[in-house]
Fold:
Amino acid sequence: MKQTHSCFPLLYFMMISLPLLVSSQTCQRSCGKLPLKYPFGSSSGCGDPRFQNYVNCNQDKLTLTTHTGCYPVTDIDYSNQVIYISDPSMSTCACTQPSKGFGLNWDAPFSFHDDDVFTLLDCSVDSSSPIYNGNNNNNSSAVPLCDKKGAPICSFLYSCRAISMLNLPISTCCVYTPVDLGPAFDMDLKKLQCSSYSGFYSFSGQEANPENWKYGIALKYKFNVYNDYPSSCVSCERSNGACGYAGDYKSFICSCPSGVNTTTDCYFETSFNNAPRLLQLPWQQITGNWLICIMAWILTWVSSSSCRLWF
Structure:
């Protein structure tokens, strides 16, 4: 006796059981020697879209871009959510040079780490400098925000050969951890009437030896308002994928090593790789667009014809 069964439920079950495949795009897992994990990405569509305008990988070099310039990323501490950058124009114990300062964009998803220490060097001692404040109502005298004589940080910096070559007395204004520079901590040295600045985030256990301080800037970042690591991204990275986004709504995607992107994770690749050779599909050669076309054709065929199994 022949029985007729619609195969639509079977096909529907098979299709919803597979991850939705989207346009092919390969996201790198590293940039040079730095590993790339969420929220950072190698190119457009990779990582978190909020960070895309600020951190990018170009020719295996990861850089942070703000309105004051481009800065090499030297390290990323993913466990503590800290990114470390350097400023080639910054003065250090080894080199002193003019600089225009550093600032973050007001909408940048970063904030300065509490360990950051900035020093403004070779600043004007004129009372017209913004780093001076009047100490009384008639402004008969001005009190600088400079480091007091004998305070350690500026004294140690001026002991560096490069900074001492400025031929400036230690009493010349040197501001550390500057205040009243605005909510974005925008360091406009021209406006502040200073010729250079230095920044560091660690004394390396040698407070009296500025040659071994870790020069640069440490920036904190958050994943979102609640600072929660997206669960979909966790599953994606565990399956050797890279978190990214696509479409007008910047929806989540998982970029898999084969170049195929999914809306879930890359575990399906392991299943296909472990399948018998005759049943394996050439996933390395099929792009996400082709797969979408195939799936759309199947749906169209099922809806326009009677799919029957005879037995």
